[in-house]
Predict the structure.
Amino acid sequence: MDEKQLNTDITMNFMKYNDLLTVFLKESMLKGSVFTVQNRGQGKILSILHQTPHISQKELVAQLDMRPQSASELIKKLEKKGLIERYKSEEDQRVMMITLTKAGKVVLNQNGDFQPVFLNVLTIEEKQQFNRILEKLVSEIEPEVAKFRNKH
């Protein structure tokens, strides 16, 4: 198989896997997990904050890939629930930063037993290799996606 055909096959398989994974997570794994904190968008915010404990509201909105007004509503709801807090950046007082509160961390920890069973088919070595490959692909595409987001 030539490289062009291999690239096409990988892309098609990845897209198929992504579609199947989306359905699988939506139907089974997300029930009761952190992503369903009343709202998938709210869960996504908590997940982002778990990965990036202190993030600007602007960057959070960019990662959510939604309108700033919609993201602001979700942020307000989480803040009202006491799961996140906003504060002014020490470097630039105009920038609002967002972080998890202790209660937000508790919610994440309570749901921290989320184990993706679909990865059980891989050995630990395969998981490590797969993760490195995904990180490499993400780092390659992130700047391109950022260009699209900055146009809006």
